[in-house]
Amino acid sequence: MSSLQPVRGTHDLFGEDMRRHREVLDIGRAVANRFGYDEIITPIFEKTEVFKRTLGDTSDVVTKEMYTFSTKGGDEITLRPENTAGVARAFMSNGLSQQLPVKFFYGGPMFRHERPQKGRQRQFHQAGVELLGVEKPQGDVEIIALGVHFLKELGVYGDTVLELNTLGDTESRKAYRDALVAYFSKFKDQLSEDSLDRLEKNPLRILDSKNERDRKLVADAPIFSDYLNDFSKDFFAQVKDGLDDLGIAYEINPRLVRGLDYYCHTAFEFTTTALGAQGTVLAGGRYDGLVKMMGGPATPGVGWASGVERLAMLMTREIVIAKPVVIIPMGEAADKRASVLADELRYAGYRTELGYSGNLKKRLIRANKQNACAAIIMGDDELAENSATVRDLVSGDQSVVKLDELVEKLAIYR
C-alpha cells in the first residue's frame, strides 16, 4: 500500500459511496427544479471578507475553522465553509437585484478545520437552496416544503423531526438580546471564555455553546418567544398555518436560534437520531439582512443547507445502476470488430465493457464479477456469419444473433 494517504479529514469517494453521494445531489437537483430553482456553482474559494462579514468575528467558523491563505498576489482567500454567503455575493456581483425573485440550488464541497468524525469531514459536501426577494411568510413555507420533498424522495423523511422556531424582527431581537445580556451578566464568573467574549459581542451565540457549564446556565435563560412583538408573532403564525395546510408536522424548539444579526423570523432544522446521537441533516432560516450587510441592496432571503454525507448514510434505498454488457472477442479479427461494436452499443445507451485477456472461461468469470447481465462472444466462426453469441449470464441461455440485430436483442437488459 502506498505511503501517500488522504489528508486527515478528507476521503476518496468511489463505488457505492460515490453512487449514494450522487443520488443525494441528483434528487436534490431534480426536486429543486420542480420548485423553479436554477442551479448555481460559485467559486470554491472567495475573498476572506465574504465570510468574515457574514459569519461574524465571534463565530467558531471564523475564529477556529476557516482555511484561509494569501495568494501570490497578496489577496487573502478562504476556502468556502458554507455557500449562502457565496450565493449572496454572486447575487450582487451579477446584478441580479432587478430579476427578483431569484431561486438557486447548489451542491458541492465545503471546508472547515474541525475534528473529523462519522458523517463530518474537513472537506464535506452540502446541497442547499436559496430564495432571494420574497419577504412574505410564504417564502419560508416554500423553502421548508422543498426540504420535505427532498427528504421524502431520498426515503429518509420518516427518520427526521422538523424543529421550528422564530427569531422575530430587529426590534424583537434587540429586546431579547438585552434580556440575555442582563441574565448572563449575573453569571460572568461561571461562563466559559468564549461565552464571556460573546456576551459583549453576540449573546445569542451563548445559546449554541457546547460547554457544559454554559449549557446549564442556558437551561434557565430567557425564552425568545417572550420578547416577540405583534408583527413577529403574526409572521410566525402564518408560517405555521402554511405548514399545517401542507400537512407538514413540526415541533417548536424555543432554544433553536441563529446568532448572526442578519437572521430573522423563521429558523428550522430537520434532526435525526438514526445516526447515533441526535444530529442535524438539513437546516435553514430567513436572513433578510444578509445582502445589505455585504454591501448590496436590502433583499429578503430564506434558504437551507443539508449535509450530503449524512443524508447518504441515512439512506437505505438501493442504488440501482445499469448492469454492463461484456463483449468477449476471441481472435485477432474479433478484437478489431469488438471495439467498433462496443462503440455502437455505447451510442445506443448500453453500458459496455470489453473482455480481452485470458481464455473464454476466465473472461466469463470476470464478466460475472463485473455483475454483467450478458456476454457477447465473438469468434472467427461467428464473424464469418456476421453474428455473435449472446449469453444471458443469469440464466445461462444463449443464442446466435446477427450483429445488426444486437441492439434490438439486448433491449431486454435495459
TrEMBL record:
Belongs to the class-II aminoacyl-tRNA synthetase family. It catalyses: tRNA(His) + L-histidine + ATP = L-histidyl-tRNA(His) + AMP + diphosphate + H(+). Its EC number is 6.1.1.21. The keyword Nucleotide-binding applies. NCBIfam families: hisS (TIGR00442). It comes from the Bacteria. Pfam families: HGTP_anticodon, tRNA-synt_His. It comes from Kiloniella antarctica. InterPro entries: aa-tRNA-synth_II, aa-tRNA-synth_II/BPL/LPL, Anticodon-bd, Anticodon-bd_dom_sf, His-tRNA-ligase, HisRS-like_core, HisRS/HisZ, HisRS_anticodon. PANTHER family: HISTIDINE--TRNA LIGASE, MITOCHONDRIAL-RELATED, HISTIDYL-TRNA SYNTHETASE. Transmembrane segments: none annotated. This is Histidine--tRNA ligase. It is an enzyme of class 6 (ligase). Its main location: cytoplasm. Keywords: Aminoacyl-tRNA synthetase, ATP-binding, Cytoplasm, Ligase, Nucleotide-binding, Protein biosynthesis. It is found in: Cytoplasm. PROSITE patterns: AA_TRNA_LIGASE_II. Residues 29-329 form the Aminoacyl-transfer RNA synthetases class-II family profile domain. The lineage of its organism: Bacteria, Pseudomonadati, Pseudomonadota, Alphaproteobacteria, Rhodospirillales. GO terms for molecular function: histidine-tRNA ligase activity. Homodimer.
